[in-house]
Specification:
alpha/beta; seven-stranded parallel beta sheet; 7 helices; 9 strands; binds nicotinamide-adenine-dinucleotide
Length: 259
């Protein structure tokens, strides 16, 4: 396929479902060779096969983003298969809810381990490969509107995503001399397979979310893929940026339900 990523090879972590899957599919439609990652080989291969059935080029590779050796092996497989690594999206993430005064510290640590440490591991293995290639590259880290704002019951997630924002800036500065661009995408509330299931669990309903969002709706996976495509472009002079794609949520100064 020809498109804006023709000739590029892109890894998207945690891309067997949700936003990551949407990004993997869009990048493939834009001509990239795509590496679909999941902890399960079966799930990764399933998505890769469906991309291939649609005319794209993809393989599935299992790895846990918190495991540096497994992630280094994923990069090795990518380069063996496609010859280079040009784009790397740290999309995998988890969240868990709880009041801070009761939060189990091991559970808290696990969210930070996947969302922040896992993102660093991905940046490290991708950055090493891109620096060695000597031809630049693009890394995109998945943040959240909650990386810039506090929200009740989400202390490990908010703290991790805030860490992702600063990590993005730091690595953008550190790797600018190698022309490795590092940016972050901070989605607002996006409608995915699990939105319905988790309805109300954080103390607000899906209607509350629509009311609090100036655009009056959830964002879509396709819209996040569009933003991701812009952010992995290397002809836009953008690095170290956190793009909020949240329907105006951060911009809005009024409280939930007060519209
Ligand atoms: P999701 O749960 O559907 O997808 C996350 C994927 O990451 C899953 O496939 C999961 O299996 C995978 N994953 C989790 N731990 C992993 C690990 N250790 N190693 C490898 N893969 C692992 O969630 P989503 O809504 O598609 O979210 C994708 C990203 O976008 C996450 O980083 C999330 O924090 C962020 N985000 C989502 C929203 C939203 O409203 N959906 C909003 C803001 C930010």
């Amino acid at each position: 396929m020809t498109g804006r990523l023709s000739g590029d090879t892109a890894v998207v972590t945690g891309s067997s479902q949700g936003i990551g899957k949407g990004i993997a599919e869009r990048f493939a439609a834009e001509g990239a060779n795509v590496v679909v990652n999941s902890r399960s080989a079966e799930r990764a291969e399933e998505v890769a096969e469906s991309i291939e059935a649609d005319g794209g080029t993809a393989i599935g590779v299992a790895a846990d983003v918190t495991d540096e050796d497994a992630m280094a092996a994923l990069v090795e497989t990518t380069v063996e298969e496609f010859g280079s690594l040009d784009v790397f999206v740290n999309n995998a993430g988890v969240t868990t809810l709880g009041p801070a005064e009761e939060f189990d510290v091991d559970e808290w640590r696990e969210v930070v381990n996947v969302d922040l440490v896992g993102t660093f591991v991905g940046c490290k293995v991708a950055g090493n490969q891109m620096i060695e290639q000597g031809d630049g590259g693009a890394i995109l880290n998945m943040s959240s509107l909650m990386g810039g704002r506090g929200l009740q019951l989400r202390s490990p997630y908010c703290a991790s995503k805030a860490g992702v924002n600063n990590l993005t800036q730091t690595l953008a500065v550190e790797w600018a001399e190698h022309d490795v661009h590092v940016n972050a995408l901070a989605p607002g509330f996006i409608w995915t397979e699990i939105t319905e299931q988790t309805q109300g669990s954080a103390g607000y309903t899906n209607d509350d979310i629509r009311d609090r969002t100036p655009l009056g709706r959830f964002g879509s996976v396709e819209e996040m893929a569009e933003c991701a495509l812009f952010l992995v472009g290397r002809n836009n002079f953008v690095t170290g940026e956190v793009l909020y794609a949240d329907g105006g949520w951060q911009a809005y100064g009024w409280g939930a339900g007060d519209q």
